[in-house]
Specification:
There is one protein chain. The protein is of the alpha+beta class. Among the domains are: about 5-55 and about 170-240 and about 325-390, 3-Layer(bba) Sandwich (FAD/NAD(P)-binding domain); about 250-325. It has helices at about 15-30, 60-65, 70-75, 115-125, 135, 140-145, 170-185, 230-235, 300-310, 355-370, 375-405, 410-420, 425-430, 450-460, 480-500, 500-510, and strands at about 5-10, 40-45, 80-85, 85-95, 100-105, 165, 185-190, 195-200, 205-210, 215, 220, 240, 250-255, 270-275, 275-285, 290-295, 325, 330, 335, 340, 345. The structure holds flavin-adenine dinucleotide. The site of flavin-adenine dinucleotide has 37 residues, from helix 1, strand 2 and helix 10. Flavin-adenine dinucleotide (FAD) binds near residues 13, 42, 54, 227 and 355.
Length: about 550
């Protein structure tokens, strides 16, 4: 067997770099009886991080647990609030032109005699009218409307009334992880990588640092952001663009104050369709993260800034910057002895806040496929297959929002509907779902990020199924649905009684006595319902 890897190098000190360093170091060194894995993170003192990326998916609970981070401390330190859904506004319109709005929540309802209660809902509301789909399925939607919290302040860490993720200040989070990494022995080097040296096999053998000279490499994770210094530049791994299926290529962040200081805090992210893309609204504890993701073919930067400012009800700020987004992925994310993570590996627009999730999954898969120094091609192939599948799953789910939009008011929305290339797999699913409702076996990706329920929340929200008939509806009983609605109403009443106001809950957590800021790695909490296969690395 070839030599074990004892030294791991990470290039980049953004969220991706520090998250990878924290997760790998905590999981490889906390409970192992083998020789330690030395982790060194090299970060440029002058090149800034992208500094946006403020909403997460459910898997963040698993990551806090793996790294042994205390949830309350994380909430207090990183300006965190809870996120239990994405609310979509004006991605579609009703027949009279009024904007549709719907939730994509993280919770899922139980099945009725083997059938999704979505069938019962659909048979009762064929025309697309009636109570909203998500509200009919889940008692927790009323809690979202009431701006209440998915977790009680005194509850055990990660023990929610219903599943939740987080809104987090990206800059504070990277700094928090950096301090944590220092306590668990990650070496931090502030220097610029100015050259990448390779051996006769093409493996990266060392990095030339501007001030520190040569840094030897056994295995390297490239987290250098959109530059993709090693993976795309030095190793020349080609980039596979997704632009033909996803129309937006620019983003303007515009952080602003809350409308009223001390006012209510939504426990969800809002995404509102504008004239040439969509605006995000991420309620952090001390401010709102907002921004416009748009197509440069349909609006100029200045027009986008003006439109977003008007949407936010503020004057256009003078210092707005437009971020150029390279939408797609590197062909392979693991090449030779280098794995790319974060923006260096690829990026899909942030509509469903999937980028940090991707880093977490990449770390998880790297730990499961951890190589010796020869980097077996079988491990690489397995890892590359997993990452390619996840990129395509996310691309398809985001594309769904665009290709099925029914807005006619601007060229952008018509372009998104009529001229984007619908990926083959998505086109197949859309055709399939004209004949049945989405179910788990329709989705080829085991452990998918977006379940059949995610698709149903969006498709019902868009009124995609209006007027359709499904043969499977003959197998269901109407009375079952009445019982189901009764149980949803009971659940709603219980949650409304138990859930505290979101702002009040976060305020109380911020005031609570600090527990040790991290637990010894490996002392796990029960994450059932908070992120799928939580607790297991492999
Ligand atoms: C508009 C927008 C909104 C987003 N919203 C979300 C969201 O809601 N949720 C989500 O999960 N993600 C989101 N993302 C993605 C998220 O911002 C990134 O995935 C995340 O910040 C990780 O970035 P990164 O660490 O890969 O890169 P960066 O933050 O760009 O960090 C790159 C690092 O590499 C270093 N570096 C570069 N060159 C060198 C060199 N030569 N030598 C040494 N160091 C070097 C830099 O100094 C820096 O430390 C969003 C992204 C954009 C653009």
């Amino acid at each position: 067997m070839s030599e074990p890897i004892r030294n791991l190098t990470i290039v980049g000190g953004g969220t991706a770099g520090w998250l990878a360093a924290a997760m790998i170091s905590a999981s490889r060194n906390g409970t192992s009886d083998a020789a330690p894995l030395n982790v060194t993170l090299i970060e440029s003192p002058t090149i800034p991080t992208v500094g946006v990326g403020e909403a997460t998916t459910l898997s963040m609970g698993w990551t806090l647990d793996l790294a042994g981070l205390d949830e309350n401390d994380f909430i207090r330190s990183c300006d965190v609030t809870f996120k239990a859904a994405v609310k979509f506004i004006d991605w579609d319109r009703s027949d009279d032109g009024t904007p549709l709005s719907y939730y994509h929540p993280f919770s899922i309802p139980p099945y009725l005699n083997g059938y999704a209660p979505a069938y019962h809902y659909h048979r009762r509301h064929k025309g697309g009218g009636g109570r909203s789909f998500a509200h009919s399925m889940l008692g927790s939607c009323a809690v979202l409307d009431a701006l209440k919290s998915p977790r009680k302040p005194g509850a055990q860490s990660l023990d929610g009334l219903f599943p939740y993720a987080y809104h987090v200040n990206a800059g504070l989070f990277a700094g928090y992880l950096r301090e944590y990494c220092k306590t668990i022995g990650v070496n931090h080097v502030l220097d610029d990588v100015v050259g990448v040296n390779r051996d006769e096999r093409g493996f990266v053998s060392s990095l030339a640092l501007e001030r520190g000279g040569d840094h030897p490499v056994e295995f390297v994770i490239d987290c250098s952001g959109f530059r993709s210094l090693i993976l795309q530049q030095a190793l020349e791994e080609p980039f596979v663009s997704f632009q033909e299926s996803l129309p937006c290529d620019r983003a303007i962040p515009m952080p602003i104050d809350h409308p009223e200081p001390g006012g209510k805090l939504p426990p969800y992210t809002t995404s509102t369709g504008l004239s040439a893309g969509w605006a995000w609204n991420v309620p952090l504890w001390s401010r709102r993260g907002t921004g416009y993701v748009y197509s440069s073919a349909h609006i100029s930067d200045d027009e986008a800034i003006a439109e977003l400012a008007a949407h936010n009800g503020v004057a256009p700020p003078e210092n707005s910057r437009s971020i150029h987004m390279n939408i797609g992925r590197t062909r392979h994310t693991w090449v030779k002895n280098c794995v790319g993570m974060g923006l260096a590996a690829g990026f899909i627009e942030p509509l469903e806040s999937t980028s940090i999730h991707f880093v977490q999954m990449s770390v998880r898969w790297l730990l499961d496929n951890f190589p010796t120094r020869d980097c077996s091609p079988a491990l690489q192939q397995n890892f590359n297959g997993l990452t390619a599948t996840l990129y395509e799953e996310i691309r398809d789910f985001i594309a769904l929002h665009y290709v099925l939009n029914n807005r006619d008011d601007t060229p952008f929305w018509r372009f998104a509907r009529d001229e984007l290339t619908c990926p083959d797999r998505l086109a197949h699913l859309i055709e399939l779902w004209r004949h049945k409702l989405p179910s788990a076996p329709d989705l080829p990706n085991r452990g998918a990020l977006f379940s059949e329920w995610s698709y149903m929340y969006v498709l019902f929200g868009k009124k995609f199924f209006a007027g359709m008939d499904f043969p499977s509806e003959d197998a269901i009983r109407d009375a079952d649905f009445d019982e189901f609605l009764f149980s949803v109403a009971s659940d709603k009443n219980r949650l409304m009684a138990e859930a505290p106001d979101h702002r009040a809950a976060i305020a109380e957590i911020r005031e609570m006595q600090s527990t040790p800021w991290y637990r010894p790695a490996g002392t796990s909490v029960d994450l059932a319902g908070a992120g799928g296969e939580a607790g297991a690395i492999a």
